[in-house]
Amino acid sequence: MRDTRSAVITHHVRAALQHSGLSERVFASAVADSYRERTPLHARSVEFHTGGCYDTDARSNAQLLRRMLDGQVRMPIDLEEPLVLSLPEPFRGACLRELAARTGHLAAPLPAATGAAQVRSASRLMAETAEAIEALAPLLEDGRIDAADRAEIPAALRELLDVEAACASLRATLQAALQGARVTSLRPHPDGDQKCA
């Protein structure tokens, strides 16, 4: 386990910058935009550069974030959400998963509310399951999981956490629909009392 939440975020930001097409300037601009959207003016502890030339602001904001990631400046808690939510997938999911695990929780998306989102939620479960099976395949090649598989086990565990999160989200959607069905199934009875449909 990494020492602090900021160390977790720093690790995943650096991984995203190194292993995706994301540049420091584009990321810093996304973080600054997200911070302004999510944090009321009176509660802001970070002053991102805005109002000047886009390139100059992006360069200055990238330098500000670099200082936080390098530990020269302390990363304020109100910057956690914008930093994490500005990460591209799969880095965002990995970061959320690790942050949740620090407090003994599972990072699962909120239940889907619309039909299209519910279909995506079910599709996500299938995709995550396929990825977990793919990660488990090398472990099961010799017919058993043992100490010889130690190097591949962390990746399989991460994939299984993604399956659990997809299941939790879909289960919450089903439970919400079931509870909603019970509430809406009450209709007025002709003699004034309510009766279950």
Structural description of this entry:
Helix content is 62%, strand content 3%. The chain has 197 residues and is mainly alpha-helical. Strands 1-2 form a two-stranded antiparallel sheet. Strand 1 and strand 2 (194-196) form a beta hairpin. Helix 1 (5-19) runs antiparallel to helix 5 (91-102) and helix 2 packs across helix 3 (54-70).
Q: Concise description?
A:
β1 and β2 (194-196) form a beta hairpin. The longest helix has 32 residues, at 153-184.
How would the blueprint of this fold be written?
Layout: H1 5-19, H2 24-38, H3 54-70, H4 80-85, H5 91-102, H6 115-140, H7 153-184, E1 186-188, E2 194-196
Antiparallel strand pairs: 1-2
Helix pairs in contact: 1-5, 2-3, 6-7
Keywords summarizing the entry:
mainly alpha, 7 helices, globular, disordered C terminus
Radius of gyration: 22 Å
> Beta-sheet strand percentage?
under 5%
**Poorly predicted ranges (pLDDT <50, ≥5 residues)?**
182-197
| Silhouette | globular
- Ends distance: 52 Å
User: What is the makeup of the main sheet?
Assistant: 2 strands, antiparallel
Measured as a percent range, the helix fraction is 55-70%
